[in-house]
Amino acid sequence: LKYKRKSLTLMGCEFTGIVNFLGDPDRPLDLGKKIVFKNCVFEKPLQFRNCHSVDTIENDFSQKSSAIQIINGRYILFRISNCELPFGIDIYSEEDDKIEIDWFESHYNRFSKAGYSFDHVTFKSRFDLNGDTVENLGISFRNCISTSPFRIESVESPSISFWGTNSIFEKDIRIWGGSIKSLIWNHGEFNDEVDITSVEVTESLTISGSVFNDGFLFRRKDSGSQIRNFILPKQIWIQDTKFQNGFEFHGDLFKADKL
Fold first, then answer.
1. How far apart are CA 20 and CA 208, in angstroms?
2. Could you give the 3-state DSSP secondary structure of residue 164?
């Protein structure tokens, strides 16, 4: 595919078959400036593989600059792998509408100027981030609702943040391996276990105004004694938080500057 325009916008569309944006490793598919899906329904997978987008944009601050924007609608499966999208991906609901994603997968992508932003998204069945590299801004979940297990593995990012008073995560969240500068839990409710293992958190761990109804684990290695990276954050902040079933923190003799 080659686009004659800088961007593609699809509004109010329903797709009953698989929608693919596929390039080759040596010839990535050029997505141009951005692709926008608004109020769309996908009954089959929406997939991106070996794609790239532009790395410069005009100074138009009235519009979002994300390479892929998904606004409202329902998606049975969103899968993206081996893509280079400098301005990241923005997935959000608008006003009283909502967005639901049954199955979400992101593997081995690179984002240089912005990462992932999820805002008022409902995750239904599965969420899996593996091997992604985010160089700026980070990965943000704001006021999201999830009945899906969360898996974030071997990800490099300036931050991962779960925040917003309407955030509810019903299933377990497991973050394993990778390198993160700041890990933030702010005003959410987490009803299953949170397990952070073998993660290099270089700057800070912040937990504020949240409720954890099952265990919260921060440790160097898992039960199989597998260790990748581990650094104790320089600063650890815990405030106004309820740990209803315990808090386990295994620093393994590493030192933090502030607690």
1. 40
2. strand
Q: What is the DSSP letter of 27?
A: B
pLDDT of the residue at 62:
41
The strand pair at 29-30 and 211-212 is best described as: unpaired
pLDDT tens-digit map of 9-44: 999 999 999 999 999 999 999 998 899 999 999 999
3-state secondary structure of 192: coil
User: Rounded to whole angstroms, how far apart are CA atoms 58 and 65?
Assistant: 9
Nearest CA-CA partner of 170 in 188, 187, 150, 192: 192
Structure tokens at 70: 């998904």
pTM of the predicted model over 0.85: yes
CB-based burial of residue 119 (10 Å sphere; 0-12 exposed, 13-18 middle, 19+ buried)? Answer: middle
For the chain, the straight-line distance linking the first and the last C-alpha, in angstroms and rounded, comes to 53
Rounded Cα distance, 106 and 188, in Å: 23
Per DSSP, what are the bridge partners of residue 27? 24
Q: What is the rounded radius of gyration, in angstroms, for the C-alpha atoms of the chain? A: 19
State the number of CA atoms in the 13 A half-sphere of 188 facing the CB. Answer: 26
φ, ψ dihedrals at 16, nearest 5°: -100, -5
Q: Are strands 179-190 and 216-219 parallel, antiparallel or unpaired?
A: unpaired
- Residue in this structure with the two tokens 């104790």, named with its chain if needed: 232
